[in-house]
Amino acid sequence: MADIYYTSDTHSYLYDTDYIHQGSSHAGYFELARHFEPGSLVIDGGDVLQGSPLARELSKQGFPFFIQAEAMNAAGVKVFVPGNHDFNFSDVVFKRFVSALDATLVCANLVDTSGEIQIAPHYLYVGSDGIRIGVVGVVTDFVNVWEEKRNLGSLRVLDSVESAAKAFAQLVALHCDYTICVYHGGYDDISASYAYQENRSDALAQIGFDVLLTAHQHAIVQPFSLGRTLSLQCGSNAYHYARLACSKEGVDARILKAGEGKVYDHPSLEVVKTMHLDLQERVFAYLATKIGETEEVFEDIGKLESAIHGSRLADFFNQVQLEYTKADISCVSLFNAPRSLGPVVKAGDVVAAYPFPNTLVVIEVRATVLKSALERCASYFSLKEGSIVISDRFLHPKVEHYNYDYYQNLEYWFDVGKKVGERVVRLRYKQFDLLSEADRTLALVMNNYRATGTGGYPWFANCPVVRQYKVEVQSLIFQTFEETQRVAIPPASNFRVFAEKLTNSSKGC
Asked: Strand 211-214 vs strand 178-184: parallel, antiparallel, or unpaired?
């Protein structure tokens, strides 16, 4: 029998805190790792380096050390499959990180043309009773979309399905009792097709693996059968882990919360945790620092309410982007959890409201492209029993409120009573009617991820790039408060959401 422990998308949430709320979060990698039986097969599915305020602090310092690697070594991680965010900081940082790991870097579709690091396509684990477990790792093909070639350096990401199939064929010769694919990607969605595909679990399951461990979508997916393959996903930010007990009779797979399950003695884990408490305290001290004020609370009042009536928080982010880039129009999305800023703003409030390392891109968009993108936004809504609700397409298989965009310097109306694709009934920029002037072009600023076409916006990927910026949006927000200690109320967005066929129509700004 062999026990397997699996985590993914921990995003440097090592300590027992979410850095937002007071008190403990009853989670964190140090807590999870206490449940990993020494000598067992411990696997991490990537997205380790980026995410938490602790990670941001280390990245600002140029990663003088990798507490993430130290924690994983202490936890006994044997297999590491990288996630897309592990490539955010350059190939140099990535190579330093994996070199600091005791674990084997297993990624069949990752190649280092420099030969500076060793990358294994598969890994063989033999349990104490002789049971043989073969593990193949692959990362989402979309790394090629999100990361610039100069950032990847000597690293190349190949086709995930083709690479996994080749590695699986090699495992067959090793006479494994069980084969496992660890995929830093998720379950297939119905979004538009691109040159690369982001989530390819269906195709990977068809290869013939016994188990498919997925990641990337930050979802908790209880074990289920994907064809003949057992599959699961265990969420993000070190709140849950998966335990798989593999025996000659079969696989018993469970997703457990931090704090659930037997606890083992890991002295080295406690050493790492204690050794870096000063770093954790510096992060908390910084987050508690007041950086300014706002004239009123910039709210994201609730996902549906904000999407219908507008959000001061979205207005503020749009204003920051417009003032920095001088583009004609701007679009932003808000993240899954509603946040607010003000009237007193601390550093931690900014980190909570805008947690990701996005940069800005200005593209040239034709009115037809803008119309298509807004139709995608309008598909966020559905009608149910006479009311406007959030469409299931933004809730399943993954909650994706962040794929609904708010625009500034445009006037637009959504008639949700019409079918998807025909809902934008008004679209104007200043005195120009963009529905009748299809060839008019505008400079649109957005974050670098949206500019790649992700989230169901493939039209943006083909638009000419006017300017690109390396400074992170979060840094621009901090800069805004440094320059203006009391930030004025931003201009309100100008849109309406309604259903003409309903007598009790809902109207936005």
From this structure: parallel
297 and 211 part of one domain: no
In degrees and rounded to multiples of 5, residue 54 shows phi and psi of: -65, -45
Looking at 246, 261, 283, the residue that finishes a domain is: 283
Give the tokens for residue 189.
């969605």
| pLDDT tens for the 509 residues of the chain, in order | 899 999 999 999 999 998 877 677 789 999 999 999 999 999 999 999 998 889 989 998 999 999 999 999 999 999 999 999 999 999 999 999 999 999 999 999 999 999 999 999 999 999 888 999 999 999 999 899 888 899 999 999 999 999 999 999 999 999 999 999 999 999 875 444 457 788 899 999 999 999 999 999 888 999 999 999 999 999 999 999 999 999 988 999 999 999 999 999 999 999 999 999 999 999 999 999 999 999 999 999 899 999 999 999 999 999 999 999 999 999 999 988 888 999 999 999 998 899 777 889 999 999 999 999 999 999 999 999 889 999 999 998 889 999 999 999 999 999 999 999 999 999 999 999 999 999 999 999 999 889 888 889 999 989 998 988 877 898 899 999 989 889 999 999 999 999 987 644 443 43
Distance CA 485, CA 490 (A): 14
Whether residue 82 contacts residue 8, with contact meaning beta carbons closer than 8 Å, is answered with no
Where does a domain end: 237, 258, 283? 283
Give the structural domain span for 135: 2-283
Give me 216's structure tokens: 């990337």
pTM: 0.79
Exposure string for 400-414, b = 16+ CB within 10 A, e = fewer = bbbbbbbbbbbbbbb
How far is the CA of 237 from the CAs of 176, 193, 219, 505, in angstroms? 32, 29, 11, 39
Assess if residue 505 is contained within a domain: no
Domains in the chain, number:
2
Instruction: Measure CA 10 to chain center.
Output: 11
